[in-house]
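hey so u asked for the seq, here:
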Amino acid sequence: MAVLEQMDLMTVIERNEAAEPASTELPSPSSVSSLLIPSSEPLAVLALADGTLFYGQPFGALAPLGDAHSGEVVFATPMTGYQEICTDPSYRGQMVVLTYPLVGNYGIASADGESRQPWLSALLVREACDEYSNWRAEESL
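ran it, structure tokens below
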């Protein structure tokens, strides 16, 4: 099993600030008309405590997405090192936002992990790249 198959990943597509603060109900996917996600694709929603909603397209381990996940949202600024961030135990239970706009372009190499499993609750990126170009890579993100 791949190191990152167990983790929820999401590409953030759009931000919606129109939600009521502290709202406990999320809008249905059918009511979100301006998203760039085809209606046949799954939809992920990141709901912050202040009511701000971010919509995105999940990728990676989609099976656990039926249940709501929670965690502290933090950010990381490196241009590289996404595999190390995902497998670093210090990020346990956190939802990490990567500020670099393209993630996944050099793939995953089993020798580069900090541990044998991912510890994040979620990895949030602007654009996930499935095609990698690194001779050491064994699989895509």
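Residues 45 and 55 are 5 Å apart (CA to CA). The chain has a mean pLDDT of 76.
lmk if thats what u needed
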